[in-house]
Amino acid sequence: MKKLVLSSVLVLSMTFMFAQNKDVLEETITKTKTTVDNKGAEKVSESMLVRKEQKVELSQEDQNKINQSRVDSPTKVTTHQMVVEGDSKVMLDKKATFVCNGSECDFTPQSDGFTIASKEDAGLNATTYVSSNKNFIVETENGNGIGYFDEKGDFVVEYYDKSTNELIKRVYSAKK
What we know:
By secondary structure, the chain is mainly beta. Helices cover 9% and strands 59% of the residues. The chain has one helix at residues 2-17; strands at residues 22-37, 40-55, 57-58, 70-71, 75-85, 88-92, 96-100, 103-110, 113-117, 126-130, 136-140, 143-149, 155-161, 166-174. A hairpin with an 8-residue loop joins strand 9 (113-117) and strand 10 (126-130). The radius of gyration is 24 Å and the shape is elongated. The protein starts with a helix and ends with a strand.
């Protein structure tokens, strides 16, 4: 009996210890369009992930009461949009942050692709252009290569390094 009481006290104290002090709401909004032409039907989807975070703050006037009033606190809203054509992710619609080799990189959309800029590692900077097969042509200081979004939403760049005579694969992981 003593072990049962002690284990239940331990479990309850663990649940209270890990209680969250913020509200998080994540919502994915998807719009799909199908265009039909002489080449067939093509499905284009726009997907937007909206994340709203708000700290839970209680009124100081009700500090020692059982039922405390909640005070409005600022809400942090982050969005991440992506355009999907067919079954492959094609292009970022808004500025997004990715991580490569431990460095944060900003992906900023342009009219014909996007730029990759890292404040920490200049070797990660690149300019991309959309190719005819919906991949990306990537220009870096190390040479040109191809880029694509994989099934996890990471941006993968492959290029040939002439100095080492090998194929280099660089992965920019989506920052959560």
